[in-house]
Each structure stands twice: as structure tokens, then as C-alpha cells.
């Protein structure tokens, strides 16, 4: 039986998605109770049920919209009531809009920024009280290789912003014993990357990504979860404000 000092509670946003569910599974396998949150009610309950059965940990699937302050505050307050703590916060929920400069509209831009950047900020803001009480915490923000390489306009801007937020919060939360780091994956095959592409376009997209990756394969959700698990662990207690690229070397931009 786990005693109170070993007990850890993780909250993973976008937990119905491919990466979120795998990250949740990894944290549960490492001994955390896990709350997955998502706007997709059926998906998050399905993912939570799978994890519960697979890991034997307490796993919950809650509906929440990370871009909505009230929804985030309700989530953290429910977490406080039901679990009493938040040891590991993984800001993984995101949306993408593939518009370029010529076509981007304010609505798409604001949606991407609200979910991908404001969401992580407001979750941290709501969780501060729990971290103050505990004197410890881990935040892992899921950015993207695009923050460095460039990519879809609003999405890339939000993921670069998330690196800025990671570094600013690392400084602000360090006195509370909270570390804040980011993981920046290259392309992982999930519905997120398939979205809006025909079969042929998607095949060409995958081949292009594999060609530009020095370690010649694509990233898997488990590759990303391994990096998250490290930042979320005790082993990473003295590391904060960092970005770990999970890209097979694709962040190096080798000469063609
Ligand atoms: N898949 C990739 O190739 C890749 C590469 C680099 C980074 N990433 C990042 O990894 C993370 C997960 O990506 P994924 O591929 O699993 O995507 P996904 O679309 O499968 O999962 C994202 C999840 O976020 C949820 N979500 C969207 N808006 C939300 C909101 N307002 N509140 C709560 N939940 C919301 C969605 O319902 C979905 O379940 C994202 O941050 C993404 O930017 C993905």
C-alpha cells in the first residue's frame, strides 16, 4: 500500500488524445494517480477506463476546457477536494489551425492562443495554492519542434510562446519548489497530424518527416511519455526552465 509520502497525483490535459493518454498511462505505471481532462467527454472517459484497467491506479476522466478560466478553476478545486494535491501537471491539450499569414483570421488565432498558451498559464495560476501548501510540484508543458523549426503560423507562435511561458514560470515558481520544463516532440502519427490531409498528402508528409530525421524514424507517443516522465520525476528535481527535444535529432537542421 502506498503511504501519504509516496502518493503522487498527476493531471494531464488533452487526456483523450493519443499523446495525453500515453503520458497518463506512463505516469500511472510510475505510481501516480491520474486525472485526465479533455473537452471530449466520451473520449476522456474511454481513455480513463483503459488506464484504470491497465494500471490498477486511481484514474479519473474529467471534462474541462483549458481555455476557460471558470472550467479550469472548477477542475483544480475538484482536484483539491477529491485528491488534496497536484504533484504533476502536464499541459498537453492543444489545437492546430493550418492557416498561413495570408489567410489567418483573428478567430482561429485567438482559439489557438487560448487553448495552447492561456490554458497552461491559467492552470498554473489555479494550482499555485496547492503547490504552496505542498512545497513541491512538477509542470511539464508539451511544446513542439515547430517552436524552433517554424510551422503553421498560429500553432508555431503558440508553441514558441509556451517555451517562453515555461522559462518565465520556472523563475516564478522555483521558490515554491515547483519545476517547469517543456518537451518539444517532432511529428507523431496521431489524429492531430492526420487532420485535414488526404491519404496521399499524409503519406508524403510522413516520408518527408522521416527523411529529415537523423535517427530515421518518426517519434512515438512512448518517446514523448518517457521525456515527460523524467521531468515529472524526483530525478529531475534540480532541472527547471529547460526544453527537451524528442525529435531524433531533427531539431539540429542538418545540411540537406
Ligand atoms: N502529434 C504530433 O505530431 C505532435 C508533435 C509535436 C507536439 N505535439 C503536441 O502534443 C500534444 C498532444 O497532441 P496529440 O497529437 O495527442 O493531439 P490530439 O488532438 O490527439 O489530442 C489533443 C487533445 O486535446 C483536447 N483539447 C483540445 N482543446 C481542448 C481544450 N480547450 N480543453 C481541453 N482539452 C482540449 C482534444 O480534445 C484532444 O483530445 C499537443 O500539445 C500537440 O501540440 C503533437
Automatic annotation (TrEMBL):
InterPro entries: NAD(P)-bd_dom_sf, SDR_fam. It comes from the Bacteria. The keyword Oxidoreductase applies. Keywords: Oxidoreductase. GO terms for molecular function: oxidoreductase activity. SUPFAM superfamilies: NAD(P)-binding Rossmann-fold domains. Belongs to the short-chain dehydrogenases/reductases (SDR) family. This is Short-chain dehydrogenase.
Amino acid at each position: 500500500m502506498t503511504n501519504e509520502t509516496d502518493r503522487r497525483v498527476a493531471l494531464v490535459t488533452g487526456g483523450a488524445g493519443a499523446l495525453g493518454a500515453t503520458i497518463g498511462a506512463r505516469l500511472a505505471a510510475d505510481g501516480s494517480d491520474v486525472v485526465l481532462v479533455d473537452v471530449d467527454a466520451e473520449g476522456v472517459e474511454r481513455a480513463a477506463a483503459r488506464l484504470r484497467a491497465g494500471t490498477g491506479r486511481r484514474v479519473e476522466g474529467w471534462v474541462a476546457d483549458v481555455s476557460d478560466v471558470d472550467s479550469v478553476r472548477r477542475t483544480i478545486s475538484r482536484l483539491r477536494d477529491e485528491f488534496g494535491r497536484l504533484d504533476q501537471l502536464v499541459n498537453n491539450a492543444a489545437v492546430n489551425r493550418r492557416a498561413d499569414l495570408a489567410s489567418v483570421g483573428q478567430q482561429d488565432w485567438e482559439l489557438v492562443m487560448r487553448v495552447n498558451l492561456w490554458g497552461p498559464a491559467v492552470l498554473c495560476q489555479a494550482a499555485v495554492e496547492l503547490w504552496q501548501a505542498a512545497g513541491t510540484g512538477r509542470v511539464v508543458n508539451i511544446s513542439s519542434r515547430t517552436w524552433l523549426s517554424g510551422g503553421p503560423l498560429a500553432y508555431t507562435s503558440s508553441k514558441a510562446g509556451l517555451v517562453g511561458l515555461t522559462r518565465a514560470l520556472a523563475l516564478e515558481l522555483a521558490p515554491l519548489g515547483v519545476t517547469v520544463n517543456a518537451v518539444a516532440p517532432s511529428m507523431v502519427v496521431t489524429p492531430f497530424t492526420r487532420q485535414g490531409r488526404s491519404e496521399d498528402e499524409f503519406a508524403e508528409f510522413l516520408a518527408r518527416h522521416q527523411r529529415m530525421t537523423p535517427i530515421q524514424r518518426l517519434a512515438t507517443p512512448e518517446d514523448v511519455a518517457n521525456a515527460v516522465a523524467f521531468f515529472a520525476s524526483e530525478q529531475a528535481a534540480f532541472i527547471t526552465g529547460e526544453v527537451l527535444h524528442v525529435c531524433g535529432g531533427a531539431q539540429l537542421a542538418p545540411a540537406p
